[in-house]
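Researcher: We plan to redesign the surface later, but first we want a full-length starting point. Tokens attached.
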């Protein structure tokens, strides 16, 4: 059986000339290589042949070709590329990742926030630029509507520097590619889960190292697993299951949260693809995470009681 791993940074996207920030490009490439290696090694342990694009001038064309030659495939790519690439793989072979319609919703941060809010799931509030300017002491977050890895996320407090100003139109509102949200003070964590057709399996709670640098928020790595106490962990996993169930998700899903000082767990992002945390999960879980991805698609997932972690894994981006 031949498996395609379509990892965007290694496949060609990481060296794209559009990426003007070399440091950001290097960190994304490092994450991409780590996720690719984890999945590749896992599939090969299961006895499968693995193929993947590498340094391709036309990544999409390479994915199209390789997916037609493969028995199954999985995509790891930025939000603005993930839907189209998942749709391509799903049309050519068996998609081991999240379903394309789930991807379509979750890669749009504005749409995801609205859908979750309507279902009573806590999310940071969406605000206008006018509100930001009226509340100079209040902090807000400006982020791309489609993006990943804390990419181009700014802290706003009523003062618009030149770089941030370029994101907005003459009406002082975000353009269609950016949104402004309330800044929630708290602990940055994520949940990793695998959803099958009839059950959802929680894997780990992960600490996210998010640092503020020069008015931006940057992802610096993580700790897997991360202890937050039984009550908070139960709350996060209940919300995670609800999100995946209501949006009809399947496969590996990573959900970013902020544990607020008010005791709420706010959903910040829903990532319909393998995330960097999978690298650590593969090291601490008593099940092969690739086997679980296969079982989610073709078989039955183990019970929650059967899945355990041992040890800790730290992923640092410096």
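Model: Full-length starting sequence:
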């Amino acid at each position: 059986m031949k498996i395609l791993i379509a990892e965007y940074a290694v496949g060609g996207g990481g060296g794209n000339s559009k990426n003007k920030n070399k440091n950001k490009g290097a960190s994304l490439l490092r994450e991409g290589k780590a996720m690719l290696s984890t999945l590749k090694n896992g599939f090969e342990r299961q006895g499968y042949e693995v193929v993947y694009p590498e340094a391709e001038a036309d990544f999409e064309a390479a994915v199209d070709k390789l997916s037609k030659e493969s028995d199954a495939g999985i995509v790891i790519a930025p939000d603005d590329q993930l839907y189209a690439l998942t749709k391509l793989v799903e049309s050519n072979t068996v998609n081991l990742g999240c379903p394309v319609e789930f991807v379509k919703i979750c890669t749009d941060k504005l749409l995801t926030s609205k859908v979750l809010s309507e279902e009573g799931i806590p999310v940071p509030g969406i605000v206008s630029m006018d509100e930001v300017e009226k509340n100079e002491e209040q902090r807000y977050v400006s982020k791309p509507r489609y993006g990943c890895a804390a990419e181009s996320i700014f802290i706003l407090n009523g003062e618009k520097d030149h770089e941030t100003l370029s994101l907005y139109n003459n009406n002082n509102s975000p353009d269609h590619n950016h949104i402004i949200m309330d800044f929630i003070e708290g602990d940055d964590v994520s949940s990793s889960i695998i959803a099958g057709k009839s059950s959802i399996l929680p894997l780990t709670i992960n600490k996210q190292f998010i640092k503020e640098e020069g008015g931006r928020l940057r992802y610096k790595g993580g700790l897997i697993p991360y202890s937050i106490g039984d009550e908070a962990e139960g709350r996060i996993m209940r919300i995670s299951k609800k999100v995946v169930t209501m949006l009809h998700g399947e496969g590996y899903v990573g959900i970013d949260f902020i544990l607020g000082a008010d005791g709420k767990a706010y959903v910040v992002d829903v990532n319909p693809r393998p995330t960097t945390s999978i690298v650590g999960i593969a090291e601490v879980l008593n099940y092969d995470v690739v086997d679980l991805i296969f079982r989610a698609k073709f078989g039955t997932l183990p019970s929650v009681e059967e899945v355990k972690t041992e040890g800790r894994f730290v992923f640092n981006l410096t």
